[in-house]
Amino acid sequence: MHRTGELFGQYRTLEQQKETANLGMWVFLVTEILFFGGLFLTYTINRHAYPTAFGIGGNMLDLNLGFANTIVLIASSFTMAMSVWSAQTGRKKLVPLLLIATLALGSVFLGIKVIEYKQKFDHHLIPGHSFDITYCSNNPSACGLSGKALDDEKKEIEEGIQAEKQNPSDSDQSGLVALNSHAQLYFSLYFGMTGLHALHMIIGAGLLVWLILEARKWRFDAEYNTPVDNVGLYWHFVDIVWIFLFPLLYLINRHLA
Amino acid sequence: MAEHSEHIVSPKIYAAVLTALLIGTVLTVQAAKVDLGRLNIVVALGIATIKMTLVILFFMHGKYSARRTKLVIVAGFFWLAIMLGLTLADYSTRHAEPSRSQLNEPPSSLFIRS
After folding, report:
1. What class has domain A25-144+183-256?
2. Measured between CA atoms, how close is A21 to chain B, in angstroms?
3. Of the four, A43, A256, B21, B83, which is 20 to 30 A from A95 by CA?
């Protein structure tokens, strides 16, 4: 660990030393791109196979919370980028403040995610024994559904049951069983992908805490800011993953809702 | 060896990127509420790709990185394209129609009637 930014023997200049550190970070991020890429691939294939169930699942997510989280995360990327800028331009006192702002916005994101997950537990949308895609349309008061939203959801599920039947002559029950199992696939992917993303956010928050403690010692300046820069790269990468997760998970069939 | 000094992106550019990202987010939500048929997914992924490009180029300094670093970034997406492209090509052609030569054979083996 070189924390103070002295030049190590294998490099000719500090410039080259920093470039190497950036390159290493990018190589790590490439493995992350492929890691998440596998999940996006799984999602695409299953969405293509079960478009109706995935559309219904997507409409059960809270669009307002998802939208708010997208805004919060983009704002946190901005404050992160600004903290790199303040280190590069030698504004030492600004660095920890902007890092704290980034950490705060990241925590808001995770807090909203907790509210969303809690809601899914309450609405019986956790894959497993108690999963029931019709829970909210059957118990509208428990989900705060009423009026047009309730009618829309009932209609959507009714159409979904018909669409999931193998043969038009099958019973509604068999259509419902198929819809439930394919909607569980959607929610498994929803929790898998957003959960893995949230795990990355938690790791990022830990890195930010470390940076804030270091920055409080006025360590980062124009000469030496590699840790801020590299954690920044990581944070922006996590933002990019969400930039794709949001439309793919929340916006599948909004025009039908 | 590139020995250029570190490029510092100005706060103005960061603010412009932030604005563009926020506008993109609002746009993608509004576009999703309009029924564009199969184009809905194209628009959603198009906007997401533009947003990603802005983040990589400016927030992540991709535009100002060393050439070697740029190569690594591009290589990452190249491998991603291989993974997505070849796998999806397989899935989308799994239930291909019979080829011409198969159609010329007697139908008994191809068309099973119950």
Report:
1. mainly alpha
2. 10
3. B21
pTM for this predicted structure: 0.90
Q: ipTM higher than 0.85?
A: yes
- DSSP state letters, B23-48: HHHHHHHHHHTS--TTHHHHHHHHHH
Count CA atoms closer than 13 A to A123's CA, side-chain side: 21
Neighbours of A253 (CB within 10 A): 18
Measured N-to-C along each axis, helices A94-122 and A63-88 cross at an angle, to the nearest 10 degrees, of 160
What Cα–Cα distance (Å) separates residue A68 from each residue in A5, A64, A109, A110, B29? Answer: 39, 6, 8, 12, 11
Give the pair of three-digit tokens for residue A121. Answer: 């537990």
Residues from chain A contacting residue B20 (CB–CB below 8 Å): none
Nearest chain A residue to B35 by CA distance is A255
Tell me the two tokens of residue B82: 């291989």
**Residue ranges per domain, chain B?**
9-60, 65-93
The tens digit of pLDDT for each residue in A21-77 reads 999 999 999 999 999 999 999 999 999 999 999 999 999 999 999 999 999 999 999
